[in-house]
Amino acid sequence: MRLLAEKSFEEKLYRIFRVFSEDWEEISSEVLEVEESSFDERQRQKEEDFLRTLGREGSIFLVVYGERGIVGYAMGGLLEEYREDKDGGDRLEEDEEFGKRNTFYLESIAVHPEERGKGLGTWLCEVLIDEARREGFERFSTLAVSKLLQRILVEKMGFRTYKVQRDLWGFEEVPYIVGRILLPQYLRAEKLDVVCIAEQDNL
Fold first, then answer.
1. Domain ranges of the chain
2. Residue 178: predicted pLDDT
């Protein structure tokens, strides 16, 4: 486990750590609690999903610690590693740069309901993008169900909606959002309008 950042929100100190496979036993119960409180059953990750992500090439797994312990997480990895996923993996091949192995794919991000509204989700995205850039990724992408995540990536960070996927995970429309992250400031990335859709805010 490695400390990446720390910051105060509402006079409380939070820390973001990068975690690895060997850390899972220590953090698993708290991460799974965040997951259960943040997603309904059709979207919820299982323990084997987290372990699979930790073992993927190019994986990055971050957790946020607050006074109550782990209050949020974000995870993902090399875009091409998700090709075989049963839910949406085949749609990722529609990315025009699929196969170039230059894109970090955000698989999942969540903040505990009792900790939302402070900006932890935005901060988590910022630290994750910085870490992906340090790992050599040039692009960042995700299938964003949450309207809040859409706003963070598009309105605050200047990413764009590449394509809207239809009939995915029980939702009629889910935007696939991409952005370049090799710029000195990802806030300078090209900005286009986003199509806001599903009513699911878990950040």
1. 2-188
2. 84
